[in-house]
Amino acid sequence: MTFLLPLLIAAAVLALAYAAFNFFKVKNLEEGNETMQKIAAYIRGGANTFISIEYRILAIVVAIVAVIVFLALDWYVAVALLIGAIMSGCAGMVGMKIATYANVRVTNEANKTQNIGQTLKVAFRGGSVMGLCVGGFALLGLSVVVCVFGFGLGWISSLEPVKAWLTGIDLVRFPNVLTGYALGCSMVAMFNRVGGGIYTKAADMGADLVGKTEAHIPEDDPRNPATIADNVGDNVGDVAGLGSDLLESYVASIVAAIALGYNLIIKVGAPASSLESLYTFPLTFAAIGLVACVIGVASLLVRNLSKSKKVHNQLNGATYVGAALTMIAGAVLSAKLFGGLSAAECKALGFNFGALSPWIGAAVGIVAGILIGMLAEYYTSSDYKPTKILAEASKEGSALTITSGLALGMRSCMAPCVVLGIGIIIAYYTAGLYGVAMSAMGMLSFVALTVSVDTYGPISDNAGGIAEMSKLPEGVREITDTLDAVGNTTAAIGKGFAIGSGGLAALALMLSYMYSLPGESVGANGLPTLNIMEPMTLAGAIVGGALPFFFSGMLIDAVAVAARKMVEEVRRQFKERPAILEGKEDPDHNQCIKISTEGSISQMKTPALMAVVIPVVCGLLFGAHFVGGILIGSTIASIMIAIFTGNAGGAWDNGKKYIEQGGIPGSGKGSPVHDAAVVGDTVGDPLKDTVGPCMDIFIKIMSTVSLVAVSVFSTYNLWSVLFK
Amino acid sequence: MTFLLPLLIAAAVLALAYAAFNFFKVKNLEEGNETMQKIAAYIRGGANTFISIEYRILAIVVAIVAVIVFLALDWYVAVALLIGAIMSGCAGMVGMKIATYANVRVTNEANKTQNIGQTLKVAFRGGSVMGLCVGGFALLGLSVVVCVFGFGLGWISSLEPVKAWLTGIDLVRFPNVLTGYALGCSMVAMFNRVGGGIYTKAADMGADLVGKTEAHIPEDDPRNPATIADNVGDNVGDVAGLGSDLLESYVASIVAAIALGYNLIIKVGAPASSLESLYTFPLTFAAIGLVACVIGVASLLVRNLSKSKKVHNQLNGATYVGAALTMIAGAVLSAKLFGGLSAAECKALGFNFGALSPWIGAAVGIVAGILIGMLAEYYTSSDYKPTKILAEASKEGSALTITSGLALGMRSCMAPCVVLGIGIIIAYYTAGLYGVAMSAMGMLSFVALTVSVDTYGPISDNAGGIAEMSKLPEGVREITDTLDAVGNTTAAIGKGFAIGSGGLAALALMLSYMYSLPGESVGANGLPTLNIMEPMTLAGAIVGGALPFFFSGMLIDAVAVAARKMVEEVRRQFKERPAILEGKEDPDHNQCIKISTEGSISQMKTPALMAVVIPVVCGLLFGAHFVGGILIGSTIASIMIAIFTGNAGGAWDNGKKYIEQGGIPGSGKGSPVHDAAVVGDTVGDPLKDTVGPCMDIFIKIMSTVSLVAVSVFSTYNLWSVLFK
Prior knowledge:
Largest sheet of chain A: none
Oligomer: homodimer
Distance between the termini of chain A: 46 Å
Shape of chain A: globular
Order of helices and strands of chain A: HHHHHHHHHHHHHHHHHHHHH
Largest interface: A-B, 89 and 89 residues
Structural class of chain A: mainly alpha
Strand content of chain A: under 5%
């Protein structure tokens, strides 16, 4: 324990310091010519406007929830919640800010140097700020929580009080505080994901539906008034949304692992001597992972890339450095922390391979994450058969394009789920339930690097847009396009990681949820029981299975409503001011930005609140087992929808690009085949970029809320009042 | 018990006799002019060819499975399986035959009398043959099974041997025989549903993709070579497929109720005195339901409908008569069978309302079924907001039509699942687990009427096609169109019933499955335990959740592959023989029929076998709890997919019709808005008519196979050999 807190704080500070260094390093680069500066300012302004409106609403919601939590539970949970919200909010804000500085500087670098390696470095440096902020703020907040509620209040200042808990004095406090912290992060993530997801696709679809389909002007054309809003959307959705989502997964997996560790001791009767290790391991593992990521990021940035062309290899190299360091240090850590356990103690914890078991569990998670990512690439990259076949289907028109894409997405659910299922079985066989939680942590241990790579994508995408709109030479666009294409692949892999880790984290949270039910008996194998044959649980599972579908439908509708408003506005501008299409007059970007902002803000409230409110309301009506059913049903359905939408959407997108690049002889841009593919791409947009990414935060926030509220509704609920 | 067997046999014979009467009554009507006769002969020939090829393959598969069952279990299960397959096969065959006789006679009646009431009568008489055969053959087979394996072998000849079972002698035989019977029905249903579903949509999509979209000729135009195949498809998919599917649900719900009754006595320790009642009630309830349906059918057919115009009301009237009689007689039956139970015995069975509890459980099922059907109508009928809004979305092109339809389908999952969930809770609260099984039975108790009404739809559809192809006067087509439109609504309601009852039957089978695990403990509340928190079960549930998606993807692809072949053939004929499009030459129907037949036969094998093989293979690898997880995961996912695809597809279809009928001013047939709607309809076709209807048979066959095989793989599986 003694070396824990300093390490946590040191890792967080190191990451944030390096993030600050990169922030200013990027900001101090040149912005390029006047047009570029003007466009970048538009994008930055739009993003800032959205985030400030959204954060204002978010602040109110978080405050209300904090008050409710304070009244229903206790003040310390409410405070932890606020800390979580602030940390997650900061990470999203800083990451988005730098993305809106970095985009134009990437364009300028490409224009100035004509060198892809140099340009990559600027884009990745920008992305690394988001990545390092995710890791840094998450651990900084955890340090505060541990300090204030741990040492500060003396609850965990030494093993003495822990032993006191075991005799029944203060069992719930510290895990509750951690869950409160996770809930704070979840709420910000929920709003950023949902709001950003609606924003970005409303703008994108709106721009495409009129621009490409009706006016036949290319993407990112400066004459299209919705183009700037589209670029704002990338920053709002793909940067801030993704960052706070993965921050939340990261925190949730740490919290779930700690909570499970406690439950193993308290409910299952694992040896109390292992408590400190069970509790220390996830936190320390996260800290060394973050340090490893700093080294990984630096390994790319300090090198001279000016002669390099293989962008993907560079990014992979950085990730491999971070992942390898994390795993090596993790093995040492696992051996050190659990080395003292006797064979009997290991057995009581479910460790089949002794001291290294938790580490093996984490490794299983990493392998599973990589496999799921590779499967996503297989199904969505035009290098492989499925997307090529999909592109062929466009020959028969848009209906068969859609049909085949739906079939592709549906089929693609199988393999990742088999990987997940086998991963769970192996992790459990290796290190018991703790192993399942550790496999989620494994996937997320080098999250700072994953997010850095993921954020580099939208920055490059924006850079390309700015190049197009500023009418820079073709060569610039070529460089940014290459960077962007790699970004699409990394995004597909990132999505695999996000849903895999999100699903595992949700399951680990559910386990803690079940352990937290007062009066719940634990089976002979130490497992909590959620009997799906019980009608209440079964009914919950069926309703829970429908929830993600309902939620997805609402999200798609939200995008469609906002997109249609955008379509009307763009049509209006083209009609009332024909000079715009002739390129003689500037379109009114601000009106489009306003529509996207207002549309997403007004449309996001219902779905975002739904995820928070439903488990609580259902719990108060039907009790804890019904909610348990809801959680399992919606977790399963969410995983399917996330994979289905992600892969179908990705394949449509890349199928279209494949046709544009001449994959189908005689059918380039503008051909009927391409038109059919564009319909597929447009349908896929809200699926892959709004619905899919929202799924994992949806299940995690439901699980977290349930975990926070379970002590209330397991005791007070209508059903038990009426019928028992 | 004494009055049971005669009643069962009497009901079955009565239904089959009335079916035969109606069969010949329809067949003896006139066929109309030569063109009509020729077209009808084409359709009949195509349907017969398909069914004979399919049944040949089916016979081989059933024989193989029977041998495996014989070797792994016992001969009596294998024999019961064969009986089930024969019964289900007969029902599908007879129903399809009469449909191919009735279609042209409906056209002729409309042409001759110009009277919608008279025409309705012919169509309904034709449909009633299928309905009565479903009820009749199902109960006939059950009578044989009860005779041969009950009285004949003396296992259940009196209560003495039953008491002997309770001391552990012959616990598994009779329920096993019933499950074998259900499996036989399932396998036929699986092949008919999958094969028919692929056939009908391959032909339909193929016809539409070239006919409507490229050649701009109307539906059912005689110049389109795929038209006949399309009409064959209605008979193959919507008549034979639907009939054997609902026969299977019907049998599964009866079997599940009986098996649960046994388990309540044997495993839970309910009073042995109630065994006879628990066992008699489902069988007798089914028998009186069938008699009530005969009366209901007759109530429509004996009346003079020549002045009636409100087709929907006539059909509803018949259904109400049947349902009301079933419910009244059911209440008497419930009171009589369970009236003798003491309060303590009721409590031990979970009956909260005494002797009427099982009946209330059935009533809950009926109400839930009707509500789910109404919700399906709400989401898919152009009388209501969702479909109207969807039609509006077509203004913005095909991409937004698809997007909005997907959103509609996804949103529509919520309400039916809430109904199902609440239904399960109420049924359980009323009559325990037996109540859950009874709620499935309730939905299906008047299945003969549901199927009669459902079959009347495709007959009318075919009749319209024949009218169009024979170039009969406009008035004829108007009558058949009116009948067809009502058929679409009844089909939507029927789909709600199918998935609701299928889901409940699958759950009841799962309960029996869990009870059948050797050495499984039953909780204090008498429930079997399937702990979803157990990693093996959890992994199974995740894999199980992916299975229906995978299966759906395969089905869509199967349709797309066959449809593309059809497109090529139709294009070829139009190109090589331009006289066809000028109407001067007859197209080659046979070639299209051949493509549909070969395509569906070759494409159906993998998905159909998958459902049978996967539970067994998974069980042999990972054991019974993994399979339990698979069942629950795939049941939940299947319910969602069935509702999602059914409602999205129905709404696209009706949205298109709404536009054709002038629902959107200025945008009729041939407008860009209509074109967008046609894309939606085409995408929806395989979703609503292939994927959706296959979902319930998919989960039921998996549950049935698992139930049959559980005694094998719960003892012998790789995981337990390796790690225990």
